[in-house]
Amino acid sequence: MGRPAAWGVVALVNLEYVSRLEVVSGKGGTGKTTVAAALALALASEGRRTLLVEVEGRQGIAQLFETEALPYEERKVVVAPGGGEVYALAVDAEMALLEYLQLFYKLGSAGRALKKLGAIDFATTVAPGLRDVLITGKVCEAVRRRDRRGRFVYDHVVMDAPPTGRVTRFLNANDEVAGLARVGPIHHQAQAVMRVLKSPETAVHMVTLLEEMPVQETADGTAELRAAGLPLGRIIVNMVRPALLDESSLALVRSGVEHSAVAKSLAAAGLGGTRRGGGAERLVTPLLGQAAEYAERYALECDQRAVLDGIGQPVHELPWLAEGIDLPGLFRLAELLREQGAV
Q: Which of 108, 161, 203, 245 is the most buried (most CB within 10 A)?
């Protein structure tokens, strides 16, 4: 993909108020990168073009799409159903700063010299807020970039954002910069980025598991995003395990089951030998123990679902894939998101 004509100069006329920037966050270990990739695939279907952006330098996107490490350029990684395309980009703060210096201050060779001297690495290390400003600025530029005919280059941009505990400060970094720099290009750039991040064309989605700590972080994170005026999207519950017992079976487990009746049923089914031989009897205790553990976990999951429902955002669920996450698995998750109306 070619370089933008004016990095970070965001044209905000005739905005199409459709969610075009999809920010995906979540507690570490919830699979937010996987969900972001599946969401990008789902959005790219039926001929649409989507950019999937990684901002933490982990090259997780490259691993999911089974491709080589992503450079600082937009690269097509897969074709979605219906001919849509998913491009991917790993944003590097140093490269973004060089690009910014060249476009705003025409420091091409001087900027490269600064990089060789280590000045750029020093600047982005000692001022982590600057890193966030550069990364969000680059992502918002991709959202608003247009081709020569005035059409958006990308129909959607999906950002695999930092974890829940850091995402609000990450997205709000430009707000702080706009307050510090009252005039000049830095002030105007920061304001332009925040107009995109806080507009109806942006949605911040939260990925969680049906476990107490991730759900609590999701509740806290959504509250922080609301307080900051950032637009909330959907809550996506990942790695949901299938139901093993129906409600009547769960009620029976909770009320207590006679060992002898279970042993008799097992023996009748040919499991554990005859009841007289005691084989079926030996199976009863571990089986009922597992059933009790499942009933307890199911009750806890119901409690966590109630907490998520209380947040007041749409909730979607994606299954746990026993075979692991590969490219066919991503396509399956993308289709499930489409079926649930999450895109």
A: 161
pLDDT for res 17? 40
- β-strand 315-319 against 75-79: which pairing, if any? unpaired
Rounded Cα gap, residues 343 and 322, in angstroms: 25
Q: What angle do CA 261, 266, 269 make, to 5 degrees?
A: 130
Q: Give the span between the Cα atoms of 70 and 248, in whole angstroms.
A: 51
**Amino acid letter for position 19:** S
Angle at which helix 247-255 crosses helix 279-311, to 10 degrees, equals 120
Quote the DSSP letter at residue 66: T
Secondary structure of residue 284 in the 3-state scheme: helix
Tokens linked to 112? 């490269």
Residue 185's contacts (CB-CB under 8 Å, 6 or more residues apart) are 104
Question: Which residues of the chain register pLDDT less than 70?
Answer: 1-18, 95, 97-129, 177-186, 257-263, 265-267, 269-281
**DSSP three-state, residue 98:** helix
User: Within 117-211, where are the H helices?
Assistant: 119-126, 128-144, 164-171, 173-180, 184-197
Are the C-beta atoms of 199 and 222 separated by less than 8 Å?
Answer: no
**CA 32 remoteness from chain centre:** 4
**Residue whose C-alpha is closest to residue 314's, from 341, 280, 291, 290:** 341
Q: What is the pLDDT of residue 159?
A: 98
Q: Tokens standing for 254?
A: 């909770």
Strand-pair category, 85-90 with 49-54: parallel
Please state the length of the chain: 343
CA gap 215, 220 in Å, rounded: 9
Q: CB atoms < 10 A from the CB of 290, how many? A: 12
